[in-house]
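User: Structure please.
Assistant: Input sequence and predicted structure:
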Amino acid sequence: MTKARKLSDLIDANGDVKSTHLDNVVTETKPTVSSVSPSTITNSATNITITGTNFVAIPRVDIINTATGIWYSVNTVTHNSATSLTVNVTLPVDAGTYRIRVENPDGLAGLSNANFLTVSDLPTWTTSAGSLGTVAGNTNGAVATVAASGDSITYSEVTNVLTNASLANCSLNSSTGAITSTDFDGSSTSARTHTFTLRATDAQGQTADREFSLTSSYFTSATVSYLVIAGGGGGGGDGETVGGAGGGAGGYRNSYASESSGGGGSTETPLTFNAGTTYTITVGAGGTGNPSRSAGSNGGNSSISGSDITDVVAIGGGRAASTQGQAGQTGGSGGGGSYGGAAGSGTANQGYAGGTGSQSGGYQSSGGAGGGAGGAGGNSSANSAGNGGAGLTSAITGSSVARAGGGAAGSSGSYSQGSASAGGGAAGASGGNNNGQAGTANTGGGGGGGSTSGYNQAAGGDGGSGIVILRMPTTAFNSKTAISGTYTTATVGSDTVISYTAGTGTIAF
């Protein structure tokens, strides 16, 4: 009861401590922690500033990883004021769960009420500093790609060079680091080097900067390899038990690698395409097979022409003889002759001559086969029509393809038909009354001869259309100012291959 009375003496009717006894009440003044800067640091020793209240010189400061329960003492503490401390701390574990505890010399302490501090590694660039390469001016598309590792990296430019329309004129993908342009180097027409700084930023807002450069280049000239093949000649057909002759392959001209031109010619010299010039490419059509004793036609010429080069012209394949006793026509490769008619000659360094015909008795005869870029057309002999002359193989497109084979002769009576040649030349038709087969399109192969029996008539096959293939460095191709025609493109290593397949087209730089 005595204690109760003494307690009532301390407190008034409102529950407040009577003023006469306030001097006897003990109060505590604890430090508080309200913020820290920076709020994200790396594992290295780092100075951070702690802001709060009631800091007394010199307090103890600890950092607590609440995920592991491990406490870390700071390296040093500097008392700036009652509301500010600077501490140096080394935290070896990456985490976003650190809290801060400040204890004054009197033992009173305060603990931050939130996870104030994050420890995270800086972004790391994986793309080496320096040049990202040389890119053709006016490039529309991919230019380069940069990369950095870290937590959810985004990319940005620190300078105003890469994305400046009057300078590099590029776009930077903030998520992938891809650099693209619709017109690299903007309106410039002379080579320039653009030096710029990019920044990688992670999810914690940490950054790493790196300097790069891109150099523009402009086309002045380029070495261009070519394969030019003309259209194949039309095959022969006839009546009165006569087998038709084969059409000659289109002329074959080549400057790629160590591969030969047609007719046993050596590799030709590549062309030089220059800036400011438009080059015209023409692809020859295949010749028509002769329709029943009336003459067919030679294949069309294929060519590359320009004001500053010597034109490259491949001569169309010679048509086959159209009736007994008629000669095959001269062309890139010669057309086959009929029985009693001479074979057509090939053009020097483009193709070989056709073969001659033969008669097995009575009205049964077969013409000779058409010549090919790689060999002469076969002669017909007793009971056997001639095989088409061999073509040539080129790897200018990146894979080996045979082209410009001669057309084979058709059979008559007891003759066996001639076989197709490697390189698109057609096989001769067999027995009865059958039209000759066509040479393969875009090979310049010769048309095959038809077959007849009795007084019936058959037509020869059409020659295959030609092709013009250009191979140049991709940097040169990217510098073109215009291209037209029927063509396809493919990338082979550091080169671009353009294959024109019909009609007339152009390319300009």
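The CA atoms of residues 291 and 490 lie 39 Å apart.
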